[in-house]
Write a structure and sequence with these properties.
By secondary structure, the chain is mostly helical. The protein is built from four helices and no strands. It has one domain (2-152).
């Protein structure tokens, strides 16, 4: 998808986004560790820790998503992206909409509505972990490369 797109340089804004992508990669590692910790807490039967660690995971995940969203919106608003990349970035952002809705329902069920941490919880949590890992892989191997490769992201003035 993204990795096949090339374009012409405008040359502004990219160092900031390149640094952001490195920060986001480190946040991805943290998020993977956090969801693994929730799964481990569940498997050990420590439901108080499950809730505490689930709240931490939710907070960090949504902060990460918001930071990415704001950066992508800024790139689009600044009109620094070539049309093909902007179109792919829009598709990427739109495709995440359903995932965010599912996350909101999950967190509402288990944090706000105190649904029990049972086998359904475990199944849903493992599904979220799987989607998270796949999404992270996609971002790091497709999207972030564009942010650090000037020749493939921006357009000439």
């Amino acid at each position: 998808m993204f990795n096949k797109i090339t374009a012409i340089i405008k040359g502004i804004g990219l160092p900031e986004y390149g640094k952001k992508s490195k920060l986001w990669e480190s946040e991805h590692e943290k998020l993977k560790l956090e969801i693994s910790k929730v799964i481990s807490d569940y498997n050990s039967g420590n439901m108080k820790k499950v809730k505490k660690d689930l709240i931490k995971f939710r907070t960090d995940l949504f902060e990460h998503i918001l930071d990415e969203e704001l950066a992508f919106m800024s790139m689009t608003k600044e009109n620094i992206l070539v049309d093909e990349v902007e179109e792919e970035l829009t598709k990427f952002r739109d495709s995440f909409s359903d995932i965010k809705k599912a996350l909101n329902v999950f967190f509402k069920d288990y944090i706000h509505n105190n649904k029990p941490f049972d086998e359904e919880f475990k199944s849903r949590l493992e599904g979220i972990a799987e989607v998270l890992v796949k999404r992270i892989y996609f971002e790091e191997h497709n999207l972030y490369g564009l942010l650090v490769t000037k020749n493939s992201v921006t357009k000439k003035l």
